[in-house]
Amino acid sequence: MAFDANYFHLSVDPGNGMQKQWAYKTADAAATVDTANYFLAAWALGLRAGDIIHRLTVTNLGASNEAFSAVGIHFCNSASSTAVDVADAVTFSADTD
Fold first, then answer.
1. Residue ranges covered by each domain of the chain
2. Based on CB atoms within 10 Å of each CB, which residue in 17, 48, 51, 82 is the most buried?
3. Can you name the residues that pair with 89 across neighbouring β-strands?
4. Is 47 within 8 Å of 38 (Cβ atoms)?
5. How many whole angstroms separate alpha carbon 22 and alpha carbon 19?
6. Which burial class, exposed, middle or buried, applies to 53 when counting CB atoms under 10 A from its CB (0-12, 13-18, 19+)?
7. What is the average per-residue pLDDT within 65-84?
8. Whether this model's pTM surpasses 0.85
């Protein structure tokens, strides 16, 4: 799949050019989200280098049976109107007990 701005939201904006935090829900795996320019459209929404993205990966995105799969935290390494790169995620998986 591709980046979907409908599921990308600003969570924390301390102002004064400080690091922002974003929440993103997707059906895409961490490896897909980690690819260069996956978040390119997010630059127009305000994503900048130094920002943090909290990713929630689900199955059946947007459906009544949507279910949690994994979460991860991505750091935006670089961002411009032509290129956005995020670091490989710190990932947490579902607990099985």
1. 14-88
2. 51
3. none
4. no
5. 10
6. buried
7. 94
8. yes
